[in-house]
Specification:
Helix content is 28%, strand content 27%. The protein is α+β, with helices and mostly antiparallel strands and 430 residues long. A 10-stranded antiparallel sheet has the order 3-5-6-7-4-10-13-12-11-9. It contains 9 helices and 14 strands. The protein is globular.
Length: 430
């Protein structure tokens, strides 16, 4: 990575950093200079309650849904009608009070460390809150936002501490780092005892609650040179996501190198004595890729609904991660460490009452690192129709030797190559 420096415009401090770190340097400095005492900081529970007020959510599922038909008139058809927002306008922080032993119960795992899946839920809550604050003050007399803001994807989660202490408070901070006409990029940083534990980038989209079409949001106006670089990085991220979508193995053929690798894997499984293309032999120290599947089924109850009366995206991420983690344990026969997450995509909302079918599979192994893909499918129990709701890509590491995975079919070979691409792109092998 190329090296450079970032400047905090609050203290003018210069920090040497990599390109990957630049987007969180400003956030880290802003958090350090916040004047609000931590004891007055909202807890993550209070952030969720605040969101419920912003969208007018009723207290229980039994209550009638709020009538939002009149809110459409507050939306605009031209972004120039909306005042630009500054990055500091959306700067938002919350505390996960793990020092409270009763609150901690929900966040602790069997090894007395923090459950990573619970942090994913909290990240999603904070990202939505930041997106709404970017578009504040609210324009309706009722105090209810005319927008419906949801998570489109988690672009990346960079894990700096794979083991997080469950007895110390975690401070979550974030802000809008880029905005388009109807979408925003949210950059977030989690710190514990002033030490970064992870940073993440979420992409949010705004919709008209009634028509479900795109809604125009306030533009972002970067001021300092660092903010301008951050905004430019957001533009590059958008282009990168489009390019990666075009290069997907669902859209294009493997490269020459990848095709040669697939053929080599095929040759490694042939039985030289049989002289048949249909007889496969498993190489020593390997398992068939098809044997690494682990599945579960979830009934989506109202308890897991979000502020828009769909299943909460953070809950879906937690369940997807926990299935992937369970598969990683079964596969490695160890307690693995999560080292990265890549491209958690939300293809469609998950209605309350639907059935969620989740399937995980180990897709690629290199040294002591491996990738796990989790595919979530939402099914309407009344019709039996189903479609993809989410795809998760998780990267793990563990100590000791683990088996390689060997594909049998062409489809499994593409899954293998996709996992290989993602693991190498994550830089976790360095």
């Amino acid at each position: 990575m190329s090296m450079g420096c970032s400047v905090c415009h609050l203290c003018r401090g210069v920090v040497r950093c990599s390109t990957l770190q630049k987007k969180t340097i400003l956030l880290s400095c802003q958090t350090k200079h916040m004047t609000q005492p931590m004891r007055n900081m909202m807890s993550i529970v209070e952030v969720r309650k605040d969101l419920q007020k912003i969208v007018g959510q009723r207290g229980t599922f039994s209550d009638d849904k709020p009538d939002r038909s009149s809110l459409h008139s507050h939306l605009v058809d031209d972004q120039t009608k909306l005042a630009p927002r500054l990055i500091k306008d959306s700067l938002h922080s919350a505390v996960i009070p793990l020092s409270d032993k009763y609150f901690r119960e929900k966040y602790i795992n069997a090894y007395r460390n923090v459950r990573f899946g619970q942090l994913l839920e909290n990240l999603d809550t904070l990202a939505v809150s930041i997106a709404y604050h970017h578009n504040a003050p609210l324009v309706t007399d009722t105090g209810i936002s005319p927008l419906s803001i949801v998570t489109a994807m988690v672009d990346e989660v960079n894990i700096r501490q794979s083991v997080i202490d469950a007895t110390q408070d975690i401070i979550m901070s974030g802000h809008v780092s880029w905005s388009g006409k109807s979408s925003l990029e949210i950059t977030m940083l989690l710190k514990q005892s002033d030490i970064p534990v992870l940073d993440a980038q979420f992409v949010m989209v705004a919709r008209d609650p009634e028509s479900k079409k795109s809604a125009i949001i306030h533009p972002l106006q970067p001021v300092t040179e660092e903010e301008k670089k951050m905004f430019e990085a957001g533009n590059r991220n958008k282009i990168r996501r489009l390019e990666e979508a075009k290069e997907s193995l669902f859209e294009t053929s493997p490269s020459v190198e990848e095709s040669q690798l697939v053929h080599k894997l095929f040759q490694d499984t042939l039985d030289a004595r049989s002289k048949s293309f249909h007889t496969h032999v498993l190489p020593e120290g390997s398992v068939w890729l098809e044997s690494t599947k682990l599945k579960n089924c979830i009934v989506c109850f109202p308890e897991q609904r979000n502020i828009h009366y769909k299943i909460f995206g953070g809950y879906l991420m937690r369940k997807g991660f926990e299935l992937g983690y369970a598969n990683a344990c079964v596969f490695s026969k160890r307690v693995p460490r999560v080292v990265a997450m890549d491209d958690i995509i939300f293809h469609c909302p998950v209605p309350v009452g639907s059935i969620l079918l989740m399937s995980s599979q180990i897709s690629y192994v290199e040294k002591q690192h491996f990738t796990c893909r989790v595919h979530a499918e939402v099914m309407d129990p009344r019709t039996g129709e189903s479609r993809t709701s989410n795809v998760f890509h998780l990267m793990f590491a563990c100590d000791g030797n683990i088996p390689n995975v060997m594909p049998k079919t062409y489809g499994e070979s593409m899954l293998y190559l996709d996992g290989r691409r993602r693991l190498r792109r994550s830089n976790t092998l360095l």
